[in-house]
Design goal:
The chain contains no helices and 16 strands. The chain starts with a strand and ends in a 5-residue tail after the last strand. The chain has 174 residues and is mostly beta strands. The strands form 5 sheets. A 4-stranded antiparallel beta sheet has the order 6-7-8-9, with no helix packed on it.
Length: 174
């Protein structure tokens, strides 16, 4: 499942190939909110890896399509962000595997499978910055992020890959 966390946790089915299109909403302690079940509308690709929210809209990366979708807060009405066709390796067919909303500059951090680079894009598609997470001296750190999270309290980006979680301090300009 894909999720976005605001005042609650909203889930979206992560692999629509199975036919399970269900999703729901939960309290921050993980308890289901009664009557919050809803349908995950299919998109071009049927697999998603990660999701995020800006508090008004949710966003997710489409695995097969290699684009970013913006939806309502309950994952309905998915609309592809046109700039995402060519962002961060999408033109080369790299799948978006991580996405996080940066509330300090109103942007989306993105990662793709097969790349060690993290990209920061404004919501209108302007590339604000990027950095390469590869560090040969720390072989246990993710080589690419399958899930991203942004912490505005200390301006850090969190990335996961397999069984590893890494934290990256971001430039104050971001």
């Amino acid at each position: 499942s894909v999720l976005a966390v605001t005042q609650t946790i909203q889930t979206r089915a992560g692999d629509l190939r199975s036919g399970d299109l269900g999703a729901g909403e939960y309290t921050l302690s993980g308890q289901p909110i009664a009557g919050s079940g809803y349908f995950s509308p299919p998109t071009f690709g049927l697999i998603t890896h990660d999701g995020t929210s800006d508090g008004h809209s949710n966003y997710f990366g489409d695995h097969d399509f290699a684009g970013v979708y913006q939806t309502g807060p309950d994952w309905t009405n998915p609309v592809v962000l046109p700039w995402s066709y060519t962002c961060c390796g999408a033109a080369q067919g790299l799948s978006i595997t991580g996405i996080a909303f940066d509330s300090l500059n109103n942007s989306l951090w993105l990662s793709t499978g097969g790349s060690t680079i993290f990209w920061d894009y404004s919501l209108n598609g302007t590339l604000l910055g990027s950095f390469d997470s590869f560090n040969p001296l720390e072989s246990g750190l993710p080589q690419f992020g399958f899930g991203l999270g942004f912490d505005p309290a200390d301006n850090t980006l969190w990335a996961s890959s397999t069984n590893v979680l890494a934290q990256y301090a971001l430039d104050p300009a971001h």
